[in-house]
Amino acid sequence: MPEKQLSGEVYYPKQQIIDHANAKCQDLYEFAKKDYVGFWEKEANDLKWFKKWDRVLDDSKKPFYKWFVGGKTNIAYNCLDVHTETYRRNKLALIWEGEKGESQSYSYFALRRDTCRFSNILRSLGVKKGDRVTLYMGRIPELMIGMLACARIGAIHSVVYGGFSVEALHERLEDSQSKVLIVSDGAYQRGKIVPLKQIADEALIRAATVESVLVVKRTGESINMEAGRDMWYHELMALPIAGNSCTIEEMDAEDPLFMLYTSGTTGKPKAILHTHGGYMVGIYATLKYVFDIHEDDRYWCAADPGWITGHSYIVYGPLLNGTTSFMYEGAPTHPYPNRWWQMIDKYGINILYTAPTAIRGLMRFGDAWPNRHDLSSLRLLGSVGEPINPEAWRWYYKTIGKEKCPIMDTWWQTETGMFMITPMPCVPLKPGSGTKPFPGLEMDIVDEEGKSVKPNEEGYLVIKTPWPSMLRSIWNDPDRYVNQYWSKFPGMYLTGDSARRDEDGYYWIIGRVDDVIKVSGYRLGTAEIESALVSHSSVAEAAAIGLPHELKGNAIHCFVILKAGFSKSDKLIEELRQHVGHEVGPIAKPEQIDVVDSLPKTRSGKIMRRVLKARALGLDPGNISTLEE
Ligand code: WTA
Prior knowledge:
The protein is of the alpha/beta class. The strands form nine sheets. The chain has an eight-stranded mixed β-sheet, sandwiched between helices. A hairpin with a 7-residue loop joins strand 14 and strand 15. The radius of gyration is 24 Å and the shape is globular. The relative contact order is 0.11. The mean pLDDT is about 95. The site of 5'-O-[(S)-ethoxy(hydroxy)phosphoryl]adenosine has 23 residues, from helix 11, strand 19, strand 20, strand 24 and strand 25.
């Protein structure tokens, strides 16, 4: 029971949820508070190591922290082999449903077998430990198999979200110097086909390091196959060389597992690096406790594997916990707005983890769609990606969870790898707040000087303790890692978010304070959108900002200065929107583009997006002393 009465709108956990929980959360908080290193060590001991670590945490070269130093393991071994060696061998690891309604399932045995076969193929193509492999696909089981196959042989995977387009893919192939690209011929999305292979062909023209392209047949549309470079996945998988077993690469705990590109404050997207050891421990423990994973659960994270949520909580976390995961290929409302509710009913899903934008999108179709289906299998719900507005929270809680399923509103980032601010099933909830930091984490909200702010005051959200699944660096750019995350406040990790903490110690995220825009939960950088705009022949300068949007959370608004000889027209604006879609991806298409004569800039020439945003919202732009007008 809570020690004191909490303020505001509070939802206390039901006794049956508390009784069911696989841990007493108060015990976890207390243990971790006394000894956070010991807490993580205990979790690591649940997993298999070829050699145990000499030291749990090495902080001698801050901020280049190391975890489980000297330990040898492989995350893919812990995801598959440990289960196939036990009674879980024939348990379902993955149930998949395609947008067109077909389904497939994989037992742990089958998933390990196919992963081994694919690992052998990759090895035969010369992929070695440390080589980079890019994956660019829709939400299909082969994406999971590809990631696990890379992990098994120690290759570093770089998954590029299937909603990205030519330039975004090209940039990521080139920066990672990938040797192999795994792509699907296309992906189904809202009944249409996204021609992924065709987009990849365009991106590959300037990606010199890619030697082989492995193509998964999903749509069967006719595509170009370049002789000597492109090979069909299903043909390779049928070769004798793809044996059912494959030796596993023993990885150092600190060896990289994957890189994942994300948008930051300035310039190009950066690749965040995660490791085999610490990352594995962090996501194993957080998923187990937060979503209270039990042996007979069916768990569904509806994110895309192309983002960190999918990496940690569709692919690795559920498999580490030996649970049965569900994956759905398509859009939530296709062909009708009951698609998700129908599948929860059909597969008996117990846990649903999604994003506020999806909840809002489904809410607007009303209660009749979910009410047609039996959702009584649901026990826990989750939310991620942006702050959830209380109205959407209440709808999710009442209409979907029938007031019996607590909502785990998890705040975290590509960089953190795992949930950071999150409830556990026995924590009282307040709609819109992720409650408190996960056990073992000290977080704070600080002012410009790095001092803790008073309750309810807004400030910078920072993290003060290292955690096992923290990013280790930025690929090829350790200086940027130090500058971006660790230099504003010494000894504190800067999240880039602003937040406040109420009198009960509950955290409320306000939003990004940097040049990152969250559109429908997807993270985009103003720089990517702006550079796409200026790559169009008509644009001299561009600025992008995010403005509040009812469904998407934020929508992209752009301001452009046209080059001499071009004039504003609806046709040109539409052409610019399409151009951004082609370069970055459909998610980056601006909601609105305004043609302007000048942009507010500092004397050193930096665009003051804050001023643009304030003007657009009719607010006071604040301190504009550095403005050159
Ligand atoms: C935002 C996604 C409020 C936040 C896992 C963070 C959230 C950024 C929440 C990271 C949440 C994520 N409540 N805001 N529950 N979860 N965010 O790297 O601004 O794609 O910094 O990771 O999403 O986005 P990323």
